[in-house]
Amino acid sequence: MAACKRFIQRVRKGFTVEARHDAKCFPNLVINRAVPGEVEASLRILQYNIHGGLIMSLTDTLGSLAIATKGQWMTGVSTNIGTSFVRSGGKVGDILHAKAVLTGMGKSLAYTRVDFTNPVGELVAYGYHTKYVGKSSSHDNNVKFSEDGETVLEGKDVE
Q1: Residue 47 phi, psi dihedral angles, 5° rounding
Q2: Which of 118, 74, 70 is nearest to 96 (CA)?
Q3: 143 touches 11 (CB < 8 A)
Q4: Bridge partners for 34 per DSSP
Q5: Which residues make beta-bridge pairs with 40?
Q6: What was the pLDDT predicted at 21?
Q7: Taking a C-beta distance cutoff of 8 angstroms, is the pair 83, 23 a contact?
Q8: Distance CA 33, CA 5 (A)
């Protein structure tokens, strides 16, 4: 598994420990791919999570993980978040796909966009997430990845 994907799996674990929000809302979230600036994920729609709140929560989590793909252990504090719903996300049993992209990151703010598609590839919703990252850039657990995300160039690569 590539270093970038290993790293965001560790960051995500922090979101799910002790039965926190992510563990309750989408324990079946699968991270399919992670490279610097981008995360692709999927999850099966279940009876309890077939509503718009799922898309908003995933926008929050996947936007944060997109920031983590740049080696940020702490992904900051949300300053703005929103979603637009285009069509039904599907029915119980369908797989919802998501692609989160870090669209910009400066010294203080990071911007992400998350596109959600149904099993046939149609856009069903999209979200945006802005986070204050000013104090997270110097965390001891931060790393620097190679351009392709395969290796850690600086910091600890924990298997």
Answers
A1: -55, -40
A2: 118
A3: no
A4: 39
A5: 33, 99
A6: 67
A7: no
A8: 7
- pLDDT by residue (tens digit) across 3-59? 999 999 989 888 777 556 666 677 789 999 999 999 999 998 887 766 778 899 999
Residues 98-133 have pLDDT tens digits of: 999 999 999 999 999 999 999 999 999 999 999 999
**Across the chain, which distance is largest between two alpha carbons, in Å?**
44
pLDDT in tens, 73-85: 999 999 999 999 9
Helix axes 3-16, 52-68, angle to 10 degrees: 130
Residue pair 102/149 in contact (Cβ under 8 Å)? The answer is no
Find residue 154's DSSP bridge partners: 144
* C-alpha span between 33 and 154 (Å, rounded): 21
Structure tokens at 52: 């718009």
Query: Angle at the Cα of 21 (from 32 to 123), degrees rounded to 5?
Result: 45
Helix (H, G, I), strand (E, B) or coil at 60: helix
- How many CB atoms are located within 10 Å of the residue 123 CB? 12
Please tell me the total number of residues recorded for the chain in this structure.
Answer: 159
pLDDT at 131: 96
How much is the pTM? 0.92
- All domains of the chain in start order, with CATH: 3-144 (3.10.129.10)
